[in-house]
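Feature request disguised as a bug: please show the residue count (926) next to Nitrate reductase in the output. Example input:
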Amino acid sequence: MHAHASCLSHQSVGSNASLDEHTSETSTPPSSLPTSPLPKTPIDDVIDWPPSMKGVNGHEPQLPFTFPQLAPNVTPGVVANADTQTPDSWIRRNPELIRLTGKHPFNAEPPLQQLMASGFFTPAHLHFVRNHGAVPRVDEETLRTWTIRVHGLVSHKVTFTLQELNWLFETVTLPVTLVCAGNRRKEQNVVRKSLGFDWGSAGLSTALWTGVYLADVLDHVKPLHGQAKYVIFEGADVLPNGPYGTSQRLSLAANRDKGMLIAWAMNGLPLEPDHGFPIRVVIPGQIGGRSVKWLRSIEVASYESNHHDNKVLPRHLSPDRARAEPAWWYDPGYVITELSVNSAITSPAHGETLDVSQKELESGDRMYTLRGYAYSGGGRRVNRCEISLDEGVTWFLCKIEYPEDQFRRMVYNDEVLGTLDLTGSDNSFCWCFWSANVPVGRLVKANVIELFAMDESMNMQPRDMYLNATSMLNNWLFRVAVLGSEIEAGTRLRFEHPAPVGTQQSGWMERLKSEGQNVLQPRFSPIPGQVGLKVTAGLAEVSMIGPDVTRKISHEELVTHDKTQPWFVVRGEVYDGTPFLNAHPGGPDSILLVAGEDATDDFIAIHSADGRAKLAQVCLYGLIFQADDSTSACFQHHIGTLANSTTSIKSETIGCIEDENMPFLQPKVWRRSKLLAITRVNHNSCVFRFALDNNTRTLELPCGQHVYIRLRHNRTGELIQRAYTPISPQSAVDFIDFLIKLYRPTDRFPSGGKMSGALEQLVVGDEIEIKGPFGSFEWTNLGSYRWRNISRNVNEVGMVCAGSGVTPIFQVLRCIMHDEQDTETRVWVISANRTEDDILLRAEFDDILVHMGSNRLRIHHILTHPTDDWSGGSGRIDDLVLLTHLPGPSATGIVLACGPVGMIDETIRPALQRTGWDVDTCLVVF
Ligand code: MTE
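Example output, currently without the count:
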């Protein structure tokens, strides 16, 4: 089906009546699309619309058979369900594109296999899309009056209509591969969440683009010699910080050989709304972000545009720090323009399996063809692709096909495309396809297939990832893991891509990460002579066992060992926790409490795979806590195996304590507690109220401390444990309240939060387990606190929290308020959230403010996504916010903070340090 019978059939033009009738995937598509050309107006007699817009014959042009062929575009007849409630509810999109940012704005990549199956050219319905906001809707009138203003440092300022562009300049067509700078970003996001959303390896597409050379337009307006240096483009989209825009160096833009186009057609048809209808810029060889869609303005200037998102910042800048320090974004040194050399394996696909029989192995006859794509930037040709099947020891060359070269053999002209002439061009502006035939026996022996590409300037794909804050231009070697399992009379291979997007399973990066590997230096095979890290088709567990530790430790030795240098047991192995005492995020108590005990359940339930990896890495490499710098650290931490380890040394007994005088909370005893009620407080948070087992008992939780909650997930059976600070007052009899943010499944995290999932399944009457109190900090009233066994008096307290990190802050603030003897302590609170709806305990904070008065308490709310009528702070916490809304550094001051690790480590800690606080002694992080 050809969607574009004419410009009038274009989705953006004309009445939307037919669309209104067809707004769901289940409705019937329109029986026929209008085919009439644009209605004639007086101006059409003088100068004409570009032929593609007039819908010369409504089809993609038929190219000579010596050229790569265009696949038909299949725009759906109906609006996808996902779009019906968004500002783009008038656009008919291919539901098979994989949405990367939820419903809106629309950012999508094609399924990799479909992209490859469509061949050299990508039909518009499969072309990747990157929209920063809503697509400008162009109706017939807007189209007629659409102009592009060319202004700035030029001799003739001109405003062109589309007909004038068509009339004044030669119509040309070029094949160009557009690549989003974020292509393959998900791989970096698996390592560390960056400032950008996930792209898999299909963030690229190739089309024939038709329009006029930018160089011809610039030649027409005559940039002022010596003054004019840049060309700035702006689109018509309405974004919070103004229209989308970027710039180009004039020296490149004015050069026809660079192939920069102002394009009105894609594969011979009018642009789809998502791709810039009615007109856009196409910049070959550069990141897709330079190809401004819905073009409205071209300014010739002496300066670069101040649109500042396309950067690869230095790697020492974490995402949070990059966000907090705006100066980096304005440094032209980090601007990215040209694409870097890159490649991907597409066959085998992610999840593909290959059964190889013993006979085939022995005969060596059966071959498998590895395939994929490669590209480079700036018109540079990829001149080799190489594969290694032995983790980089040896490499062999692949065959490369360059379909683009077929256009270099002859000039082609037609009414819609104008002139398609690559005969004099050496530029490679398109992707090429590599392939390599390998005997299946070699794949059976391989743990990983590694792909490397190089371009004609000897730019090479690096072995290591350049981990950067925006995660742009990720181009380390593309690796596909090969997993083997035995089947009857042979082997079944299963292939795993690094980080596929969408609803597919996660790739080898997430798997190795969850197994505790350092994914930046992935090992696909067991390391000879080393421990753990074994990759098989099944689930591998990270090993925390030192390879040479043979000591047997008796039960008696374990329990009588000095408790201040705690030994603990995980899965029958004995560890020395002393080096972790200060570094443990839960404070030394978390380890001291399990001294001489079996901590397996706690350890497994509470430590994410990351935590296990940390312990393993400390053990294996001495990396994370830097306790030691060699594998000898392992020998110190893993000290032996518990002799006769079936003996139970668990301290906890779950259940009631009959002694009524004993507090409910016991640090070493899990107490059962019934769910009494769930109260929703906003769109994603609830208060869970649990019963204390005796209706005269109070909680007796020291102020500023937390407890652990543990429960078993109904469905998975997994035991899950997390720390929470209750919000019920200490005086509350009979119950304990937890304010808990529920992390629901999202496109990015389809399984949602583990604890959230388990809590959401609870019904009133269900039981969980609680133990505590824990924490190295306690507010002890009258302006004094004890932290890590040192007591201090203060009269100024700064408190910084984000999201549900408000709970310990609230608890301490309420203690200060309730302390009637204390009339001196002054408190400054900064509470950071996304939206006003996300602010938790706001009414409670307001009550405390009324009680304490504004001379003793100041509360500053700051939102990253405020509405127009929000009168509080907006943006993120930075130096200025901390300087303005916290007390200054002093010997009688302290700052308490609770929020995401990134915010604490990358923003608050360094910012407080810069403003003069001694963060080692004055910053308490909950
Ligand atoms: N132009 C405008 N006006 N608005 C945008 O959001 N996105 C840019 C670029 N041009 C964008 C834009 C980015 S980041 C990319 S990668 C390309 O458009 C994507 O082009 P496509 O959506 O046609 O594939």
